[in-house]
Amino acid sequence: ESLLQPRADLRGKHFAITAGPTRESLDPVRYLTNHSSGKMGFALAAAARRAGAEVTLIAGPVNLPTPAGVKRVDVVDAREMQEAAERAADLCDVFIAAAAVADFRPERIAQEKIKKSDGSDRDTLALVKNPDIVAGIAARNERRPFTVGFAAETEKVLEHAAGKLSRKKLDMIIANDVSEADSGFNSERNRVTVLDPSGRTELPQSLKTALAEQLIGMIAAQAFSQ
Ligand code: CTP
Ligand code: CA
């Protein structure tokens, strides 16, 4: 039925969207990251742009073309992503966090390639927590955009997503089960449930491009209703 729904008119609105993984350096040749492809965030950016919005897409290292008419800001690690996101959030009406931000980064980045030490078959890596980008933006008192998060879960999907919705003080969260075959990370398709403080809506599995269109419509309806 989404095809019969008129497309939202987002002319004059500004969306900021994070997408893709972050990459956290360990030394000049190594890093920590995850399997996020960035496809969902890029599809959301394209859909918001098609609906007339001005769109800033803050992208981690991904191999995707920039959607037409979208302003893209490339970043590498979580702290760079936060800086770009905070700057974009100052100017936006809607902030969507579709990025898979690395929760931790190596405590320090070695200047030289780390050598394996002789004599030991074990090693440990000291990690420190990265800032929570979307929670920081949702916690604003001023210039707070309508703030949307994603929750990629492998179990207790709705329970974990609802916890994040309230803990991070988001206006909406999009939950998806990444353990499901052909859904979520690195897939063309996705099946999600949209949660907001007033309830939940399950959407059928579909291509990320079609899903993005529907999600932008739902976000616009919430963000710009009186
Ligand atoms: N997020 C963020 N900054 C972080 C971590 C997550 O902005 N440092 C955002 C993601 O972009 C997503 C939402 O928070 O919109 C939920 O991310 P998720 O990884 O599912 O939740 P976490 O709070 O990191 O909890 P955990 O990974 O332990 O489940
Ligand atoms: Ca996380």
Automatic annotation (TrEMBL):
In the N-terminal section; belongs to the HFCD (homo-oligomeric flavin containing Cys decarboxylase) superfamily. In the C-terminal section; belongs to the PPC synthetase family. Residues 10-220 form the DNA/pantothenate metabolism flavoprotein C-terminal domain. It comes from Microbulbifer flavimaris. Pathway: Cofactor biosynthesis; coenzyme A biosynthesis; CoA from (R)-pantothenate: step 2/5; Cofactor biosynthesis; coenzyme A biosynthesis; CoA from (R)-pantothenate: step 3/5. Its EC number is 4.1.1.36, 6.3.2.5. The chain holds residues 178 to 403 of 403 of the full protein. Residues 15-226 are annotated as: Phosphopantothenate--cysteine ligase. Signal peptide: none annotated. This is Coenzyme A biosynthesis bifunctional protein CoaBC. CTP binds at residues 103, 113, 131-134, 150, 164, 168.
